[in-house]
Fold:
Amino acid sequence: MLLDLPPLTADRFAAIEDKVAALLRTDADVIVTQGEALLPLEAAIKGVAHPGSTALNIVTGPYGQTFGGWLRDAGAKVVDLAVPYDTAVPATRVAEALQAYPEIDFVSLVHAEAATGNTNPVAEIAAVVRAHGALLMLDAVASVAAEPLLTDAWGVDLCVIGGQKAMGGPAGVSAVSVSERAWQRIAANPAAPRRSYLSLLDWKERWTDAGRTQLPHAPAQLEMLALDACLDAIAAETLDAVIARHRAAAAATRAGALALPALAPYVPAAEHAAPVATTLRTTVDAAELAAEVRRRAPQLPVQAGGGPLSATMLRVNHYGPAANPETVIAVLEALAQATGAPAAPAVSAATAAWERAV
Structure:
């Protein structure tokens, strides 16, 4: 039955792009890309980076490491600004790096790191980057719809999002907004991809600048319709309410975890904690704990940390549909049972925190 849907028209595709632009609070061009968000992230970096350019790559989690590799592959000189994954990078550190390397013309930054549970002060960092004159690329995949994202007001030149986290949508479609400054940089870059799926310029010439009247390829229809549906759902609930729901879920999970003896926040400072996922240090093996929770309640959004953190960090993903008090309470009850702790103190603390947050 799904294959019998009428074709997705260029007008419908363009209308979905416009809804994404409204969500990002931007008047810049928005290109919806047919793939997971790594596609527009790599396309943005390969579009601006080239031999002779210098990039400041802010590393507050695993995606920053990925961006550094792409920048180096493109021939750019890369200055890595790394901080521990359980904190955020302050704008003062960014300003110091820009002063030390005045040739920096591009900055890559992740807003919220769902993998490690931290978030960065984008507005303050963006102001420093703009004063320096560099372009700023922001990975907002985990932050969009979970915390404020003011693309134009902050001066973000390339803002990449995906639908699969706080938006509550599909993973197979993503988007990037491109400022006029970024377009000029990409157009002037002889190394920018052309005739390639990574080419933002191809999209600009064949779609955006051509009036968005004829799609350059057959769109991923089901993913686009799912993206449209989740954008409508956010609008119906209101973006402010969706953000507040994620903020409350994070506060409640953190408060409840503090009442469980075997757990502690991985990100010590609450102001540095991301609203999409709460990461927890464990005194027991995190992978075994996550497996025990899944055995008891396989539907709960709990998993062990990745790589070297798999034994010591637990991740609770309270984004999208999971950003609700029922899921948070169910997770805390399952964690209490799995660790042999009483659930009542955690549930009481979480309930109070949710009520304060909303």
Notes: The CA atoms of residues 82 and 128 lie 17 Å apart. The chain has two domains: 2-236, 238-357. The radius of gyration is 21 Å.
